[in-house]
């Protein structure tokens, strides 16, 4: 009797912990965030300076892509103009860093300023649908960065040459010889993990549920009591804030905020990354950012190794983008993350047999 009671008593805590783990979304997300921080740190310290620079670039592109995949994948709003929001964040950060403002304050301010602009754009976007929304955001991507060369703003925003950003050195506590690229990668990684943690909890919240309702059927969502317009505006605000944070990191990593860095190509690259990874998937946003960042370098190295003419290998990244996009869509219509999930299920089934 005592032995049975003892066995039962020792069996209860694991079951209780398992039940808490299953019920607490916040706890699970916190665990994965801490695991991601550890993995990111170990990866960073094992890479050289150039690879850490690429890691920092992947981080800010993944942040912008995560915001876009929440907007398009969950709320169903198409945006071809997220490069403009990245530009706003970059210019905001460049102006604030020029005043010797703390880097943390600068990045938060860049996200808040861009999020406010996203809310204004969202008010107009809530009245548009389909190709009309895509056209409006496309015009935003083309027109907004060019304002830097406008006569009245040229002195403030630097015109076509943009603004030069002074690099923020690593803390002296890390040592005088600590690589700047690794420090930038650490900042980018911390921002990425925090962003994914917040978005993951947002997606599982009532607001995330409302976004999915609106995506599926706006009329049915409205009849169910979901504030459709407000949900769409807030989705644009959140997505733009992510792009603004990415823009602040862009200015920090590249030491520049110029119109030429925020062309339509950037907006299309973000959309490509979201589609490749899987619309609506935060993990897919990271996969897509990795491909969008590394594919151009890989394709350029491959073309140079094949001794192709310069005017030919300059177009190889575009061709490779198209090939990869077609292959992913054919093999995994839901994106890379959907393919990872499918492979994982097949492996579990094989192991259970």
UniProtKB/TrEMBL annotation:
Pfam families: BPD_transp_2
Membrane topology: Multi-pass membrane protein
UniProt keyword annotations, A-Z: Cell membrane, Membrane, Transmembrane, Transmembrane helix
Lineage: superkingdom: Bacteria
Name the UniProt record assigns to this protein: Branched-chain amino acid ABC transporter permease
One GO CC annotation: plasma membrane
Segments crossing the lipid bilayer: 25-43, 78-97, 103-125, 183-203, 233-253, 273-295, 316-336
GO molecular function, one term: branched-chain amino acid transmembrane transporter activity
Subcellular location: Cell membrane
InterPro entries the UniProt entry points to: ABC_transp_permease, LivM-like
